[in-house]
Amino acid sequence: MKTGLERLIEQVDLAHQEAASVEALARSVRAALLEHIAIRGFALDCLERVLASPALADPGPVWRNPPIHANKELNYKFRVFFWSPGYVNWPHQHNTWSVTGVLHNQSSILVYAAADGPRSDRGSFIVERQLVARAGEVGYLLPGCTHSVGNPGDSISATFHIFSDSPEEERRRNDTIWYPTLQAENKLKGRRFKTLRGSAEMLANIGGPRSTRLLNRIFEIGGAKVKLACIKAMTTIDPSLALSRSEEFYASLPASSYEELSALLAAHRSSAQVH
Fold it and tell me: Do 98 and 145 sit in the same domain of this protein?
């Protein structure tokens, strides 16, 4: 049986064959993603591919979040991004079409119009439109749109992107043009942590055996804060399992985390006794 992600790939491939224009293609791909984005199994399909990246287990080099799917013949790729609370990225212009859906929590989108003067920073733009998209919502952008994406919430959010590339490889360096600002942080900073922590928070909401397996994977490769997020997620999904593994959890965490872990497990012991 095909997964939701595999079915989406088939739909996007078919859209490339049938669409009569760039706008028709973007609309068709948007409709395809809208069918899947709110389904828990689809989110799990995405997280399984993200967490399967061998480089994610290495905390040393900057993790560059490779695509979870890429079609080099049709020049498109799928990516999942995790966003820190309050973060907004640099204004940037896409010269190819793209489709974006919100997998977890919410995402803000600022669409800019050019102002007078050189477009070297955010001050050279006027915000034309601003909106907030919630989990399950999907939109598309056509070539030439300048915008910023962010997270207006108070916890990590996740978005699913379908990006197209120029057919000619020499043009691809200009597919996206960034306008750096001092206000925005380095877009690579903390990417691995956000991915692991955000994945754990998503899995807590999804539940089930697949989520437990993925939480075990995250627990193995994450640092202390990520491990605590995994334990919190496990107590939500399967409290008895979390309690039975408490000794293992203590052995895996630094002493500075013991108090937080003790409070977390004690709360679930009390809850278990009440019920």
Answer: yes
**Phi and psi, residue 53, nearest 5°:** -60, 120
Token digits for 253? 């965490």
133 and 14, same domain (yes or no): yes
Domain limits at 145?
A: 4-36+65-187
Helix H or strand E encompassing 157:
strand 157-164
Question: pLDDT at residue 165 above 80?
Answer: yes
pLDDT more than 90, % of the chain: 73
Contact 86, 156 (CB under 8 A): no
Per-residue HEC secondary structure of 15-67 comes to HHHHCCCHHHHHHHHHHHHHHHCCCHHHHHHHHHHHHCCHHHHCCCCCCCCCC
Q: In terms of DSSP H, where are the helices of the chain?
A: 4-18, 22-36, 40-51, 191-206, 209-221, 224-237, 239-244, 246-252, 258-274
Q: What is the per-residue pLDDT across 169-227, written as a single tens digit (0 to 9) for each?
A: 889 999 999 988 755 554 556 899 999 999 999 999 999 999 999 999 999 999 999 99
**Distance spanning both ends of the chain, measured CA to CA:** 38
Q: 155 near 104, Cβ under 8 Å?
A: no
CA dist., res. 42 & res. 40, Å (int): 5
Percentage above 70 pLDDT, the chain: 92
**For residue 84, pLDDT beyond 80:** yes
Report pLDDT for 120.
46
Residues 105 and 20 both lie in one domain: yes
Angle between helices 40-51 and 209-221 (to 10 degrees): 30
